[in-house]
Specification:
Mean pLDDT: 91
Strand content: under 5%
Shape: globular
Number of helices: 11
Helix content: over 70%
Low-confidence stretches: none
Largest sheet: none
Length: 241
């Protein structure tokens, strides 16, 4: 049986919507922004600026969107249906391509919702400067981060990691490790090491979600994502009974 990419994507999005996981993920991402907006309307002088709101949205968006992206892959590994899907070389490649496209689709949905939230906050609270460059950076970061971390999680599943470990590593790597490293950076005296850390995608992507990154950082991030995609394709080709 040939793997149909279009059918898989349609059914995947349909399932994520009908079982409420996509909606719940979006609500979790929006909730902190809504609270901040309500506070800002009552206390305009103490309201958060646009950059903080973008980072606030990204903090929860990155995690919930990646969890949405790996939901079906996680289920396939837990139920061993991955072996039925990976019954031919073609299907194994198409499966990875389909799930990567799905991760991009989910990222775009979260990105659109995030942009709407930012504009609403700006309109209601009116604090902070908002321009096309800032919005573009915000949108690009979301679309880059979510597929990257989906591919990392998929690779972990292929390496034999269980669901609990994958979700734990995902949460820690998105919410805690970048901030811990940032706090320790002033203590590092080696300039070369600092430059390497600052240009490591797993450090700067989740840390500066609402910021405009350098062109070199976007290039490194895109190259890293393509590298992970290649690794997953290679590893998945061998993942069959």
């Amino acid at each position: 049986m040939k793997f149909n990419i279009e059918h898989y994507l349609f059914e995947s999005i349909k399932e994520l919507v009908l079982n409420g996981k996509l909606v719940i993920g979006l609500l979790i991402s929006i909730f902190p922004v809504a609270i901040a907006g309500r506070f800002g309307m009552k206390n305009v002088t103490e309201a958060f600026d646009i950059y903080t709101i973008m980072n606030l949205y990204c903090t929860f968006c990155f995690l919930t969107a990646t969890i949405n992206s790996i939901y079906l892959v996680n289920r396939a590994f837990n139920t061993n249906t991955i072996f039925l899907i990976n019954n031919t070389k073609r299907n194994r490649v198409y499966y990875v391509i389909s799930n990567t496209i799905l991760a991009f689709m989910i990222a775009i949905i979260y990105m659109i919702v995030g942009v709407v939230c930012v504009f609403l906050y700006k309109d209601l609270v009116g604090k902070g400067e908002l321009n096309g460059k800032l919005i573009l950076g915000f949108a690009l970061n979301i679309v880059l981060v979510i597929p990257t971390y989906y591919l990392l999680c998929h690779l972990l599943f292929l390496l034999g990691a269980k669901s609990g470990l994958v979700y734990t590593l995902l949460t820690v790597s998105l919410l805690f490790i970048p901030d811990i490293i940032a706090a320790l950076m002033p203590l590092i005296n080696n300039r070369i090491l600092c430059i390497i850390i600052q240009n490591t995608p797993l450090y700067y992507l989740p840390l500066y979600g609402g910021a405009i990154l350098k062109k070199t950082q976007y290039s490194i991030g895109a190259a890293f994502m393509l590298f992970l995609f290649g690794l997953v394709i290679i590893k998945n080709r061998k993942y069959s009974k």
